[in-house]
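hi!! sorry for the late reply, been swamped w classes. u asked for the two structures so here they r. pasted raw, havent cleaned anything up. first the sequence of the first protein and right below it the tokens
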Amino acid sequence: MDLHHIRNFCIIAHIDHGKSTLADRLLETTGTIPQRRMEEQVLDQMDLERERGITIKAQAVRMQYQAQDGQTYQLNLIDTPGHVDFSYEVSRSLAACEGAILVVDASQGIQAQTLAHAYLAVDMGLTLVPVVNKIDLPNAEPQRVAQEMSDVFGFLLEEMVFASAKEGKGVDQVLEAMVTRMPPPKGALDAPLRALVFDSKYDPYKGVVAYVRVVDGRAMPNARLRLMGSGRVLEALELGAFSPWMVPVEGLSAGEVGYLATGLKDVREFPVGDTVTDDAHPAQTALPGYRPVKPMVFAGLYPTEGGDYPLLREALEKLRLNDASLSFEPETSAALGFGFRCGFLGLLHMDVVQERLEREHNISLIVTVPSVAYQVVTQENQITTVDNPSKLPPVADIVEIREPWVGISIVTPQRYIGAVMELVTKRRGEYRRMEYLQAAAGADVATGARVVLEYDMPLSEILVDFYDRLKSLSQGYASLDYTLKDYRASKLVKLDILINNQPVDALSRIVHGDVAYNQGRALVEKLRHLIPRQLYEVAVQAAIGSHVIARETIRAMRKDVLAKCYGGDVTRKRKLLEKQAEGKKRLKRIGHVEVPQEAFMAVLKLED
């Protein structure tokens, strides 16, 4: 197709602002999907996405649109997730597009992810089409939100498109705005082939399927291709487009988006961000790729049944075929046996992976306390990365411990500023700046006058329950976005938990020295209620090094050994009691205390 009649775009929005619903209406209006096959969230193909109402994996689809000027346009939509954990997927999608539809909820206004994604799109040079969505809601304020978008991003009010994706209002205007305002892709059909790999997945029949955006030249089936980054040579078994299901085509030309089936068995052999070129006539320069995906959160996954370890390994290997951002390596815990140390993009990503393993592969798991990667400077002036508290070197060998810090952006109504600031300050946040978003005169204070707060704070302080507390304090109105900044030295210590005088490495944490006592005390109190009672007393202790800072005792279950004594001399009763006491001492030495999954999750729910 002529380059001037192609539009490559994505939809960016804060979570739950109607992005997937708008994509449904676009597919419906352009006739891409027959009415009989239409369903809600049609691009969200995983059951987990539908149940939670969120987009986890980016999807692509090709649409044909007959515009008012009489021309037929090819519209390539790359659907993006909205949650902060999957911002990496958004950046990859933006790099494959020339334009983006910026969707904002008419009842909620601009949120943190709206700002983050919009600024990212502007930095990449994309043309934005502003859409005020959900104008059908009773509490919608489309004019106020439009003015807010104009003040923050500089849009003209006449550029705004008012829509209700649920009812189909304004969808035609969105389509017309796309073909008239967004630029066509740039590229040369007669130049050597250059195609950007912006995503990949594993198909059991086709092998690795790479999602590609052709920038220059033309890709043909059965051609020998080369990856410019790795130098690997492969054959194009099949080329196709998404409608949204995979449909083979005769070729992909400059400006088009589609897929390339390779027959490879591992997505790591086809890295995202690489450039595909023709092996016989290669391009001279590769396209700008992506920064490698970097895990932010680490946790241990252990099967509850030791015999399921091989099944867990196989399940993780299969899951990584469709989720290249998942990383894992084997590890051993004295308390839990054999398992894997996994790296995730965030807590939601961790939760999704755990649920997919349990649901799709029927494996019961124990997940350890999530942690971040720390940099440890040793006495030999070496810097090592530690993502597991049990691998922390001895205290005598440590010069300093550096923890990752992030820049956070919180959008909140004005009335909650004090509570939000107190929460962030309590989590060691450092104030950077505050900016008021313009609100219409007379707007309700809970939904109108809002503020952007920017802080620097440790990533570990966000992990546990920061987002839940933020939502609770602001009655659900505040939103959060964060980006990794740097590593900073802090007064950090390793907090160990001992059960029956045995350290449970899976419960160890690296915490700030100022809060170590309070967190240790709160944790042992919770564990006292969560760990089942035994036939002997069990001591639950929190310790820093060899110094115990908190202790609770789980009382023994009492068995009445005197029940069978109906009389006789008192020495008979004493003999039975002494025999019971000896048995409890022996049992305490050799007994094993089972730690339930709730004990590991207790760390996530500690009160301040």
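now the second protein. again sequence first, tokens right under
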Amino acid sequence: MIASDLRIARTLIRMVPDLVRARPGSSHTVADAVEAVAVRTPDASALVMGHSSMSYRELDARANRVARWAIGQGIGRGDVVALLGANRPEYVAHWLGLAKVGAVTALINNNLTGRALCRSVELAGVDQLIIDTDLEPTWIRACSHLDHPPSIWTSGPGDRIADFDEALAGRSPHPLDTGVRRGLSTDDNLFYIYTSGTTGLPKAARFSHLRFMAVATAAKAMAGYRSSDNIYCPLPLYHTVGGVMATGGALLSGATAVLAPRFSASGFWSDCVDHDVTAFQYIGELCRYLLNSPTHPDESRHRIRVCIGNGLRPDVWQEFRDRFGLDHIVEFYGSTEGNVAFFNLDDKVGSIGRSPALMRKAAGVHLVRYDIENQCEFRGSDGFCVEAPPGRPGEAIGKITTAARFEGYADGEATEHRILRDVFKSGDAYFRTGDLLSRDTDDYFYFVDRVGDTFRWKGENISTTEVADSLGSCPGVLEINVYGVDVPGRDGRAGMATVVKNDDFDLDAFADLGDRRLPSYARPVFLRTRTKIDTTTTLKYRKVDSVSDAFDPSVIDDPLYYLDPALGSYVPLGRTEYEQICSHNLRL
């Protein structure tokens, strides 16, 4: 383990200079860090997408225009502006410009529609919304749910209601007076990033300048980024992985972030070759999609030396590395709002990372035994939590301190829900990850499952409460129970709904409601109709048996359906369809 310890030590040492500058309470914000790179290498490419590129000089200039627009609107320190857009260089320039005046950017998921979209905007309490032109119709349909919709500014090609690009064109691109950011520190919020957490509806997680610098610096150190790197990011910029780890890691390194509008298995390797990509950011499902795709002529022509991400499952890890000739895979574990992190620098297949005992003690990270049946931490006779021994799953928790902070959510009640108190002694407080992990005797950690009702599918956290609330109003639905089920050979769990219905229930209407109210990844993949849903003595829906039954027609007598992606509707699921799904001959 000495070699592993040395790799960890070298990685942590590489982080020191950046984190000293951006320590708690420091005035060295994200805006300062990016401006320093723009001064040092103004003509280097900062952001590239397709045939367009933006140098560090151009990125800083557009951000300065955005900052002056914000000042003109009376937007300053602590004010929140929502940003609803797709992956493109301007997206980064927009939030960077707002950061220059101390404003907070609410990064809205551009897959949301209807009430879910409105709720995200309401949570942030915004008065202004910057939106891409092609998303404007979606917003107009959704904002009817709001009593006081924010003012919108539209950016990008096409007809616009309020032209943000035109408003910027008249502003100066030159550096702002240093007094604009007087009083702003790394402790101030930079973003609201939306996460569904372990239970309930989406929450707006506070994301400070300090947190951005810590996460981006960690990515930079773990992957060993250099200014000569071209880092490919086909993941959404409104998420931490794409918007902070990949893009932030590139910006702090003076490297180039190569953006894709969205992930495309067929276009992935061509993009990597065309842009001379040397590193890329992944999520587990992305790796599986690439592995399940036909051989591509460019998949062996790339110059990629490292990839970094999370969720790469053990069953595809080795094959993924060997087929695509990837020298180094850095798997990590973390969450947008959490203070628990692991990283795997050793190419240890299946592990989310290694953390020696002394390192865990310094970070205040523990695995505590979890009572699955009662959905709570197990406590001993003394009333305190009990450490999970090697080989036994436990919930990962992190002690909340000044250094290992939990910045919480816009909603104070949601913040308190994620804090576990009186853990090992009276008065202490820990962040609850909501994840079950295990460790071996060599201190390698492994992901086991999520606790609570939230599950992951296609790289997204899905709240069963949100899905049930969205679909429960469908005509003919008397009761609905939503949960995640395992699909052989697929990462995460697919959504499934058990519905108690009457004669008014219509499959097409149910599918149409899901299409209108939910992002594509959150719509139930499987549907089961019953005359009664089993409940506990406290009238809570029992999910254990439903999850165990999953969508197997050999153990379920009730009618079963699956969502056909080509038709956009639910069709009957029998033994033939079940076997085709399990053998990957039927697409979900």
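hope this helps!! also noticed smth abt the second:
The mean pLDDT is 92.
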